[in-house]
């Protein structure tokens, strides 16, 4: 276990969550609850969005980090704290430490997005870049804690952290007292566990559904086995829930109080992020969009009113561009196609004319003439097109073939 047996088995109670809320007064915002007409129509039930992407530092992580650090003994505070994170937890620990006057050191992977590194430093932490993956970064942080006596602040595997995250659940019940289902993304399980503790104590009739990325879904096999098991090489764009093993403390709570844990695909995450941006006007990272992805993929599975927790909005602009393009492609609104044509004057203009006739908007054109795979009079063209849905994509492809073009991808 990550902590002593006594700590790991300590029950997180409603009183703990209420105490955490008092501690967070004036520190964490009571984030907005926004209705979504589009999602409500899609799932045939009222849907509300709990906007933790608008929390200070851009995610819910400040809540748990602050409660954990505030609960340290004076001698522990004097030794400072250390954390390992690729983003959200790093910023939460940095700001919480600054507010409490505690020195913080945060280890981040060398490949962490520059905006997240800069934000963590601006919140007051000393940032050390180490390792290529989070596991290497975590090991370095643990070594630092052992060498210096700094207190390691785990992102999810501690009762105080879970109690802090549980304050989201109290706010949901106040802002949407008629709620019947809460859908929340799950990585290590701290947020889902905290919400479950608060909500089930006050409203045991409310159904709580956790959501994991299919490529990093450690909870389903862990729940089946009855103990935390690891997923080798977790892979997902949703780095906020990219956790290979459930935490010992949250696992017990999730297993007891969370009604279901489901999974979503990368395409579903992309589509959900795009929907949040276009229809809700909210910038949400892929992990934060996972509850929306679950609603869209299983529209009849959730009794309303539904609250989807948008856990964070710290998305790297480079990833945002890729995800949006992927999301548009998944919806048939973006089409990449390669084809061969005769290399003669006016050939490209004729091709563009064919595309214009079917109302396909050309975003980008790449023209290759010198390639050993091509014949002497051939050229290869790669086109990126804005389209209007799957049916329109089919129409574009058929128009190109009818015009005599060889479509190769």
From TrEMBL:
Family annotation (Gene3D superfamilies): 3.40.50.1100
Q: Which UniProt keywords apply?
A: Allosteric enzyme, Lyase, Pyridoxal phosphate
Q: Does the keyword Lyase apply?
A: yes
Q: Which InterPro entries match?
A: ACT_dom, ACT_ThrD-II-like, Ser/Thr_Dehydratase, Ser/Thr_deHydtase_PyrdxlP-BS, Thr_deHydtase_catblc, TrpB-like_PALP, TrpB-like_PALP_sf
What pathway or pathways are given for this protein in its record? Amino-acid degradation; L-threonine degradation via propanoate pathway; propanoate from L-threonine: step 1/4
Q: What is its EC number?
A: 4.3.1.19
Q: Which cofactor does it need?
A: pyridoxal 5'-phosphate
- Specify the enzyme's EC class, one word: lyase
Q: Which CDD domains match?
A: ACT_ThrD-II-like (cd04886), Thr-dehyd (cd01562)
Q: Subunit notes for this chain?
A: In the native structure, TdcB is in a dimeric form, whereas in the TdcB-AMP complex, it exists in a tetrameric form (dimer of dimers).
* Family the entry assigns: Belongs to the serine/threonine dehydratase family.
**Protein's name in the database:** L-threonine dehydratase catabolic TdcB
Q: Which organism encodes this protein?
A: Streptomyces virens
């Amino acid at each position: 276990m990550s902590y002593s047996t006594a700590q790991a088995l300590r029950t997180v109670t409603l009183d703990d969550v209420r105490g955490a809320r008092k501690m967070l007064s004036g520190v964490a915002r009571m984030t907005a609850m926004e209705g979504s007409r589009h999602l409500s129509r899609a799932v045939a039930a009222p849907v509300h969005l709990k906007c933790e992407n608008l929390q200070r530092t851009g995610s819910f992580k400040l809540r748990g980090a602050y409660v954990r650090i505030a609960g340290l003994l004076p001698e522990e505070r004097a030794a400072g704290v250390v954390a390992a994170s690729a983003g959200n937890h790093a910023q939460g620990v940095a700001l919480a430490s600054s507010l409490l006057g505690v020195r913080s050191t945060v280890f981040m992977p060398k490949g962490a997005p520059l905006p997240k590194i800069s934000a963590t430093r601006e919140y007051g932490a000393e940032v050390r870049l180490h390792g290529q993956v989070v596991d290497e970064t975590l090991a370095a942080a643990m070594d630092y804690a052992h060498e210096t006596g700094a207190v390691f602040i785990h992102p999810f595997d501690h009762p105080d952290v879970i109690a802090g995250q549980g304050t989201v659940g109290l706010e949901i019940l106040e802002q949407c007292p008629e709620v019947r289902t809460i859908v929340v993304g799950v990585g290590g399980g701290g947020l889902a566990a905290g919400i479950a503790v608060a909500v089930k104590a006050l409203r045991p009739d409310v159904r709580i559904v956790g959501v994991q990325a299919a490529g990093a879904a450690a909870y389903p096999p862990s729940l089946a086995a009855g103990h935390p098991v690891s997923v080798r090489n977790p892979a997902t764009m949703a780095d906020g829930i990219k956790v290979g093993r459930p935490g010992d403390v949250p696992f017990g709570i999730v297993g007891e109080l969370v009604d279901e844990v489901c999974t979503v695909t990368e395409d579903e995450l992309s589509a959900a992020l795009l929907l949040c941006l276009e229809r809700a006007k909210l910038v949400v990272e892929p992990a934060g969009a996972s509850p929306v992805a679950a609603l869209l993929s299983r529209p009849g599975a959730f009794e309303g009113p539904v609250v989807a927790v948008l856990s964070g909005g710290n998305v790297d602009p480079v990833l945002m561009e890729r995800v949006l393009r992927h999301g548009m492609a998944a919806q048939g609104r973006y089409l990449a196609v390669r084809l061969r044509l005769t290399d003669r004057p006016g050939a490209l203009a004729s091709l563009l004319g064919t595309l214009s006739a079917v109302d396909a908007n050309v975003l980008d054109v790449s023209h290759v003439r010198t390639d050993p795979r091509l014949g002497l009079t051939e050229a290869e063209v790669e086109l990126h097109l804005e389209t209007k849905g799957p049916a329109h994509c089919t129409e574009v492809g058929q128009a190109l073939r009818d015009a005599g073009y060889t479509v190769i991808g």
